[in-house]
């Protein structure tokens, strides 16, 4: 049978193929995106810095209000309460002389010291607040030295209190005035801090609204920019590519958009032109291939008819030659010498061997040519039928034939029967005279196929002949040693490959021969 080869790309098409053009100039998509992303990030960075400053400023004002102004005012009120408790205690002790009136005085002293320490810590670097606290402390100390301590330590507190009542009242009024001034200043500072906090919050809210508006505007600009600068051109290019992919190879692909998209469109257009040229050449080649296929089909039909005619027309003369030679020997045997009878035997044997070669050649040519449906083949039942057909040879040779559990495979039953018969028959034929012949058919699952082996302990095959034995009409022994035409393993190879498997000789097996082949699972 002839073969047809089609060149993938003709020289004419290669010459017509468009050469790469210089790339288009201008900004690429990457550059547009890089510049746009950098600008957007710069704007966002500025907005972020502004937002961080606003947040830090608002936090500082809030911390000043929460951590200093309000606590300082509250502590000043506690200081006033402590001084009032001292004045109340001293006045009560001076009027009654009862010692239990000194308890509010002494508690007031402790509370005063605590409040002064807290105010000192809260004032920090505020010189005005420190001056107010110093004034309160100075006037309180003067009142305590003038009135409170003398009354608290006097033997006759009523007398001392009466003597110093007028001066004590004036001294404590100065304390009250200093406290009022301190609290007025602290209250004013607190009101100012609250106003600053409200202003900071308002500024923060407006700033964040502005940031949100800018982000929304940037998002819109990015969307519109990507839409107009990239996606519109990509959609247009995709639509034109889909038209070409749908079979309209004459539709040109136009360039638009950034430089890289225009370069891509140019490459696609170059590819479209090349594909169009290749398609035209392929159609022409397909036309020629169809013509040659029809010619091959007619040639195969003629060859099949020739093989059929040859198988019948060639065998008939051979049968006549053999028959008439045998008839000649029987009728004129007494008149023939030994040499003449030997020549007649040679002629009969040659005709018979020629007839066998023709039959074997026909059987070999029919594998894969006479198409039949593949079915599920039970190899266990097929093995039993094969052993029965070889029963005489097995019995005469004393061969022990065993097998593994055999599966069901997918194939043509008649050809698979020929495969087993040839392999088991060869194992029985080429047995060793030194040991009892043993033949074993093995099977194991390998993925989606089955691997089979036919092993024997016979004479084996030399390593240099393990590929040669699968060639048709190749013999390793003379016809006097072993009968046959040298077509058995070639026929097995063709049957296995027709079923989608592979066959070979296991080089590790010794003594004897192991033929390994694969067949598809019935599923």
| Strand arrangement across the biggest beta sheet | 2-4-5-7-6
What is the structural class?
alpha+beta
- Runs with pLDDT <50, length 5+? 1-18
Strand content: 5-15%
Count of separate DSSP helical elements: 13
Tell me, briefly, the overall form.
Answer: elongated
Major sheet: 5 strands, mixed
Helix content: 55-70%
Describe the structure.
By secondary structure, the chain is of the alpha+beta class. Helix content is 69%, strand content 7%. Strands 2-4-5-7-6 form a five-stranded mixed sheet. The model is unreliable at 1-18 (pLDDT under 50). A hairpin with a 2-residue loop joins strand 4 and strand 5 (449-456). The protein has three domains: 29-221; 314-364; 372-520, Histidine kinase-like ATPase, C-terminal domain (Heat Shock Protein 90, 2-Layer Sandwich).
List keywords for this structure.
alpha+beta, 3 domains, five-stranded mixed β-sheet, two-stranded antiparallel sheet, 13 helices, 7 strands, elongated, disordered N terminus
Short characterization:
This protein has 523 residues and is an alpha+beta fold. It contains 13 helices and 7 strands. α2 runs parallel beside α4 and α6 packs parallel to α7.
SSE arrangement:
Elements: H1 11-16, H2 29-96, H3 102-123, H4 127-153, H5 157-163, H6 165-245, H7 259-313, H8 315-332, H9 338-366, E1 375-378, H10 379-389, H11 391-397, E2 400-403, E3 408-411, H12 413-429, E4 438-446, E5 449-456, H13 488-498, E6 503-505, E7 514-520
